[in-house]
Design goal:
The chain is an alpha/beta fold. The protein contains 16 helices and seven strands.
Amino acid sequence: MTKDNSIFRALALGQSIWCDFLSRDLLRSGRLDKMIEEGVRGVTTNPSIFENAIGKTSDYDGDILSMVRQGKNREEIYTSLTVADVREAADRFFPIYAGSGGKDGFVSLEVSPLLAHDAEGTVSEAQTLARLTEKKNVMIKIPATPEGMKAIRRCIALGINVNATLIFSVRQYREVAEAFIAGLEDRASEGKPLSGIASVASLFVSRVDTAVDKLLASKDTGGALAGKIAVDNARAAYMDFEIILSGPRWRSLEEKGAQVQRLLWASTGTKNPDYSPTMYVDSLIGPHTVNTIPPATLEAFLAGGTVGLTVTSDREGMKRRLDKLAALGISLDEVTDRLLEEGLDAFEKAYILLLEVIEKKGQSLAG
């Protein structure tokens, strides 16, 4: 397998490409191994992904039946199935984890969406999932709600790898970065080591354009901004990342062995058919970043992605466009707040639906 493809070229510029999907078929068919050969360096999951993998295939039916006969309830079955897939995927990526000194090769598993507004419950479940997976290269996904921020800080202090997810705004990103740094400071104050703790801050991209473009359609002069704001929003977050990375608080932690919380671009599949299928990959490549890409977009990026140092591009244009958006009376903060609520609702619905499917499948399979 050649290492001269778009994934490896992005890696040379400091960006790791992860796959935004996991299923038993992906694991057992050899497709994940092929992705790893092509340069993919991690996997992310969420309740919607598992709802598709478990609820819409028969691949897990044998295990569901076995666990029903053992007397396990639907939540226990869900956890067992997802933990098993994540553990298997983590084993596949462990050589990358080891070879990168613990900086890459991660698989993410999300806490229950029903805990999004429960900091203590989130910390407790994160500890349970970390114990059940028992892999150094697993990250626990925690949504970036106000209570989630508290949980992120506590989990980092406990030494749990964290993927802070459902970030839509620059403000949210700053709060996540603060929670990460404060968690490391808490841990350092307890005399505990900072090395080996990994984290990413997952900022969702394409959904911002989907929402903003609808609002721009009603503005006479809004057309020039269509398809631009999502990337500008992400690039603005990266500017804050650079400031944080150069600050004295971070330098002090780095001297103690802490590793950077990378910015991860999520929701990078293109929703609008009028846009390039790789626009949310091509436009956000740079140091200390991850892009987690759905399989179809990953194929498109391999086939025709454009690789360059782009995450720092056109900063003057970025500021001008974001100012123009505000001048048109469109509040990006209001848009991103709504997207967070919609994201939480979507994951909760997918999670509840999957629990119901597991229960019905179990009953049907058991006769």
